[in-house]
Amino acid sequence: MQKKDQERDRLLIHLFGMIRQQKYAPKKETIEAAERLSIIVAPYLGARDKRCDIKSGLILGLEKDLGKAPADVAAVGLTDTLSQLHTVNAEYMTLGGASDAEIIERSKLPSIRDVRDAIDKIHLVACQVLQANYLTTTKDEERTAIEALAEQMNQVTLRYKSRHNVSEAQKKSAAEKHPKGPKEPKEPKKPADPKDPKDPKKPDAPKDPKDPKQPGTGPGEQPKPGGEQPKPGGSDGGPDIHLPEE
Q: Which intervals of the chain are annotated as region Disordered (predicted)?
């Protein structure tokens, strides 16, 4: 079984290598065929690194996909290689006593996230190839065919996106109806200790009012007789600055 597995690896290396090399072929038809085949085989490029039973299933898928493009396979010279790969893979599976592809467990398959990433990359490459061919072709019938193919691809993409959106909405609705568990309410925060109020200040005792002074009893000037005029510069309301008299 080990020799058969090694032979499968050798044929896979040759098949993938030929498709890659034929992108640089001198004939335009061969280059275009290699570009289309490179899109088909992209999901299978890592088949050699998989477990032997998973590899068997991947080879079956590769044969089925390449069987849909026999003209392109012949254009790059891989018809005999694909036939040999089919034979060797069947012999390996027979030696195993059963079809390994039938006993692959779902747990051994790649995750849906990895598959979706691979599909997105393939779709991007396919779109780029279509755009390049549409811009470079000079035949109206080829442009019409590319437009029809692009419309079909858009319809398929829209259908899958719609299914994905419906699935996500259903998951969200189910999660809301059946939550995993009620969240425990948070404990209320304890209020901070109130500060001790300051002692109110006692009002100051009222001051004793000063005894009103009697006129003429203070340290100031004594009241003047009625007929006498106040002297200039005094404190009886006259101006502070006086000019000298001649």
A: 164-246
DSSP H helices in the chain: 2-21, 28-41, 52-66, 70-75, 79-95, 112-136, 140-177
Angle between helical axes of 2-21 and 28-41 (0-180°, round to 10): 140
Q: What is the pLDDT of residues 91-102, one digit of tens each?
A: 888 876 554 455
Q: Is the pTM of this model over 0.70?
A: no
Confidence of residue 201 (pLDDT cuts 50, 70, 90): low
Q: Where are the domains of the chain?
A: 1-103, 112-175
The residues, any chain, with a CB within 8 Å of residue 232's CB and separated by 6 or more, are 238, 239, 242
Residue type, 108: K
pLDDT tens for residues 188-198? Answer: 666 666 665 56
What's the rounded Cα separation, in Å, for the pair 242 and 231? 11
Task: Compute the distance between CA of residue 119 and CA of residue 124 in angstroms, rounded to an integer.
Answer: 9
Question: CA angle at residue 19 from 14 to 24, to 5 degrees?
Answer: 120
